Amino acid sequence: MIYKILRPIIFKLNPETAHNFAIGFLKFFPNLATIFIGNKKFSNLSQKLFGLDFTSPIGMAAGFDKNAEAIKALHQFGFAFIEVGTVTPKAQSGNDKPRMFRLTQDEAIINRLGFNNKGVDCFLKNIATCRKNLILGINIGKNKDSEDAISDYIFLMEKCYEHSSYLVLNISSPNTKNLRDLQNEDQLDLFLAAIISKKTELQKLHNKNIPIWLKIAPDLTFEEQEKIAATILKNKIDAIIISNTTIFRDDNLQSSYAAQVGGLSGKPLFEKSNQVLSNFYKLTEGKIPLIGVGGIASADDIYTKIKLGASLVQIYSAFIYQGFGVVEKMTEELSEMVEKDGFANVSEAVGIYSRA
After folding, report:
1. How many domains does the chain have?
2. Neighbour count for residue 308 (Cβ, 10 Å)
3. Confidence of residue 166 (pLDDT cuts 50, 70, 90)
4. What's 283's domain CATH number?
């Protein structure tokens, strides 16, 4: 209710300004959620994956908290896991402004931020101040001016490995030149082989097995999806996030910002990301946990992604459009849906649509 009152005021601000204000507010008032959020836990939503205990399938997607400044506050809003970043080795300002657009009529966002962040050293200092008993993913990417992408990812693995619950290889943002080329079959195989070799080394060094997740684009042909799935299985990547933002524009978009260059997220991405999600569940034969992202606006949307093959989901745009209570609402409603369908646990619903 409070957010419904504040939203018209917030939405009068430039989207990036509003976003930075929100991060600053959450950073300096990290206990705000305890006033409004009950944070009930539902046993039928809990799962153990990668040796980690997820209290629900709902996490915060990367991109919201790029510099790991609001982790404590986000955790208290009910997210079962939080992904921070994308972080790059060196600080970089990103692409020219304006570079973020709110498509209000479409409940969507277009951004061409370009991995703007304060760099990994500042990032890790922020992480050092947060609680350790939460599931924290670190999303890593290459610097814009880097000529050796693999070296950037290896460097970040060395820096971030022991500080994360899982690491995400972001090679699918459309806003860094040539980044998506890493999804090409030959490049991907070489890239993932180097990553897994480094993981083996770090696992021995730290006596700790940190899962490696790969985040892919939704704009892949089915043939490209087949090749990526085979390469992921070959290199034994632990999980796949499906998907990043899209460069595709649907003719049904109503906002005047629809033609802006950048990655589109929010409701218009839902069906497109769902198709890729279902494809990958089939292509990997359900052998790899999938994380469903893109266009989630309700508990029903979450349940759809789970039934298509997602073990976990992440939201971002819904948090912007619906406010800080959205996670609590979605969690409670999802629990009711699982119970209504006669499942003892949400994991029993994973992939039932894609297996049909």
Report:
1. 1
2. 25
3. very high
4. 3.20.20.70
CA distance 39 to 233: 37
* pLDDT tens by residue, 70-129: 999 999 899 999 999 999 999 999 999 999 999 999 999 999 999 999 999 999 999 998
In total, the chain counts a number of residues equal to: 356
If pLDDT is split at 50, 70 and 90, which confidence band does 1 have? low
Separation of alpha carbons 198 and 22, rounded Å = 36
Mind listing the pLDDT tens digit for each residue in 290-322?
999 999 999 999 999 999 999 999 999 999 899
Q: How far apart are CA 82 and CA 105, in angstroms?
A: 28
C-alpha closest to that of 320 among 138, 32, 110, 124: 110
CA count, 13 A, side-chain hemisphere, 148: 6
Q: Which residues are catalytic?
A: 173
DSSP H/E element including 330: helix 326-340
DSSP per-residue codes, 6-65 = HHHHHTTS-HHHHHHHHHHHHHH-TTTHHHH------GGG-EEETTEEESSSEEEPTTSS
Token readout for 339 is: 């119970």
Domain membership of residue 34 as a residue range: 2-355
Which SS3 state, helix, strand or coil, does residue 315 take?
A: strand
Helices (H), ranges, 100-252 = 120-128, 149-160, 185-206, 222-235
Distant-in-sequence, close-in-space partners of 72: CB < 8 Å, separation ≥ 6: 30, 31, 130, 131
